[in-house]
Specification:
The complex is a heterotrimer. Chain A is mainly α. In chain A, about 70% of the residues lie in helices and about 0% in strands. Classes of the chains: A mainly alpha, B mainly alpha, C alpha/beta.
């Protein structure tokens, strides 16, 4: 875990610096220059932060759902702990993704929010996380809390394919990947990046994922200690 | 088959209970009338376009549903008859019984809203009846399906009132957007085929929601 | 003799990290009876609910058998009758309506009308059978719970606080039923009262 901790800090820092500092040029000469895409220019840097956070929030949600499912079968409170810890991190990354997305929207398309299908999807995810935590706070029994929130996250998870895959195809929008996009519609966006940009991008992606893993690990360990402390008081 | 007759008997019980006490029906009728009245006052002389009318239609349906569809489970919990029901019926019977009851309630609700809208808003003219009918049926099935499992969940929690819309809304957004788009097409007078993509989404949403709810219902219902 | 057996294996129940009871095991055949005793809060009602299948244990299992075959949840419904302070009936319906509605949901084999009249009389509610349960006193509601428990001729009778709210007549009726059940079927009684506990041949003490 120490390796992951250091690696994540290193990678995220590198991608932060590289993402912000490497200058743009019309026709890049050296490795230390990003191509300047007409229309995007400096704003393209957002891709190093927006996409990884959006990706991580989905990963966190899936992990939360997985451990929720596991909890339903094992009734082991530890599984519920991992599930809720991951959900909390997912919520955090979701807020980051929404904010970076809104900022990009403002600079590229004029307004912070336009109800484009992708933006709507991240908003729905935010609502699901909020509802998940509202539900948890309304249940007294530990066991029932874990069960109800696991089922809710699974039911909510069932609707995710709809708004990730289906809605973008149905609605036109500004975000890449919507109907009417010349690059083609669909969930995975073909974003043309030069090799050195791709390197920084993947470093950012891996870095954020490792950051998530490390944070999850810390939260779960803390949660376990809290649980033990309360448990031995009886 | 036993399970089918049990389910039918459960739906019948809920209806007979409703006839005696009239809790849900009163609340729903009052809510629909009030909601439509408020919208009427808000719009006054304005003639909203078809997409706005379609949107408002389902907004009223959604909120009316939120005020009435949780009763099927919450009343059992509140009155302590959940245990009684558990002793006589399996989880599957309970789920489908409550679901069926909510489906019928939702269809009645949508019918009421449709009639009111046609009376009150001159712009609400259903040009393509076939789109409207299919949308209403699929939309009601989907709405009832999501509303039922969420009702089962919140019945077991503490703060029931506000929690219900909070949990239901994110799940229902996809359904709402799709039915609004389809209803708008019905008002615009488009061909039936123009709404096929909407129907596919609605149909698959219904199936996924019902199947998923059924599979996990037992965990919610059994303590 | 109905060939029914109940096996409870290492049942434990925790609630919010507090242990209520642990590793309860017993087995009952037809003709056997068990009393569950313990002071208030020791978990008697909790154990009763777990055996009746309306609450899941934290660990362990409850299994019913007919001969060598384990009964599924659906079959157990027809064989089990429960009387509990936590049980409620629908007070917008009359006594008979409650019985007919609940049995049609349960979809058991219909018992003969004469049997049904008999148990209504046994618990002295025949005259009030068409009155709404809302109008019943607590004693009458308790007696109606017995009618509900016995309506489908179960082979297992579980009683939690059997005589609460009952007058002497009611208590006698309960004692009659208990006698019958412990001879040919399975009887479980959870109670604080020593005389009620003595109805049963075996005993588990909680807490």
């Amino acid at each position: 875990m120490a390796f992951i901790r250091y690696a994540s800090i290193l990678l995220v820092t590198f991608s932060l610096i590289a993402g912000i500092a490497i200058p743009l040029a019309q026709a890049p000469q050296s490795w230390l220059q990003f191509p300047s895409i007409p229309g995007l220019e400096e704003k393209a840097r957002n891709i190093f932060f927006h996409v990884p956070t959006a990706w991580t929030t989905v990963v966190a949600f899936l992990v939360s759902m997985f451990y929720g499912l596991k909890y339903l079968r094992t009734k082991n409170i530890d599984d519920d702990l991992i599930s809720v810890s991951s959900a909390g991190l997912g919520f955090l990354f979701c807020i980051l993704a929404t904010v970076t997305g809104a900022l990009w929207a403002k600079f590229n398309w004029g307004s912070y929010w336009n109800w484009d299908p992708r933006q709507t999807s991240i908003f729905i995810l935010l609502l699901i996380y909020g509802a998940y935590f509202a539900l948890r706070s309304a249940v007294e029994s530990d066991e029932k809390r874990g069960t109800l929130s696991a089922v809710y996250s699974i039911i909510a998870g069932l609707t995710v394919p709809f708004f990730v895959f289906v809605m973008p195809r149905m609605m036109s929008g500004l975000h890449p990947g919507a109907k009417g996009d010349l690059e083609g519609s669909g969930p995975v966006v073909e974003f043309k990046m030069s090799p050195n940009m791709l390197v920084v991008f993947f470093i950012a992606l891996i870095g954020f994922n490792l950051l998530y893993i490390w944070m999850l690990n810390v939260r779960v360990r803390t949660g376990r200690l809290e649980y033990k402390q309360l448990h031995t008081e009886e | 088959m036993n399970a089918i007759s049990s389910t039918y008997a459960l739906v019948l019980k809920d209806f007979r209970s409703e006839l005696r006490t009239r809790y849900a029906v009163n609340a729903l009728i009052m809510f629909v009338v009030t909601a439509v009245a408020v919208i009427m006052f808000a719009l006054r002389e304005d003639h909203p376009g078809n997409d706005v009318l379609a949107g408002m239609f389902w907004v009223v349906v959604f909120f009316t549903g939120m005020s009435g569809l949780s009763r099927s489970f919450v009343s059992e919990e509140e009155r302590g008859t959940s245990m009684t029901l558990q002793l006589v019926a399996s989880s599957t019977v309970v789920y489908f019984g409550k679901l069926l009851f909510n489906v019928i309630l939702t269809l009645a609700m949508v019918l009421a809203v449709t009639i009111l809208y046609m009376l009150v808003f001159s712009g609400f003219v259903i040009e393509t009846f076939s789109i409207f009918i299919v949308t209403v049926i699929l939309g009601s099935l989907g709405l009832a399906s999501a509303a039922t499992i969420i009702a089962a969940i919140i019945a077991k929690a503490n703060t029931r009132g506000t929690l219900y819309p909070v949990l239901s809304f994110p799940i229902l957004i996809v359904l709402l957007m799709t039915v609004m788009s389809a209803t708008s097409k019905a008002l615009d007078g488009l061909e039936l085929s123009a709404a096929y993509s909407d129907f596919v989404v609605l149909g698959s949403y219904c199936m996924v929601m019902t199947a998923g709810s059924w599979i996990f219902f037992d965990y919610v219902w059994k303590d | 003799m109905k060939n029914l057996r109940l096996t409870v294996t290492e049942v434990s129940k925790h609630f919010n990290r507090r242990r209520i009871f642990q590793d309860i095991s017993f087995s009952l055949n037809c003709g056997e009876s068990l009393s569950i005793t313990g002071r208030n809060g020791s978990g008697k009602s909790t154990l009763v609910k777990i055996v009746a299948g309306v609450l899941s244990p934290t660990r362990g299992s409850v299994q019913f058998y007919r001969g060598e075959n384990a009964l599924v949840e659906d079959d157990v419904k027809h064989e089990l009758g429960l009387v509990s302070p936590y049980l409620q009936l629908y007070d917008e319906f009359s006594a008979t309506e409650n019985m007919t509605i609940l049995s049609s949901i349960r979809a058991s084999q219909d018992s003969e009308p004469s049997y049904r009249e008999h148990i209504f009389n046994q618990f002295n509610l025949w005259d009030r059978r068409n009155d709404l349960v809302r109008t019943f006193s607590s004693g009458m509601k308790q007696r109606l719970k017995y009618i509900f428990a016995l309506y489908h001729k179960p082979s297992i009778l579980i009683l939690d606080e059997p005589t609460s709210n009952l007058d002497e007549e009611g208590i006698n009726a309960v004692r009659e039923v208990a006698e019958e059940f412990k001879k040919s079927s399975i009887l479980i009684v959870a109670t604080n009262d020593q005389s009620e506990a003595s109805w049963c041949s075996r005993r588990i003490h909680l807490g």
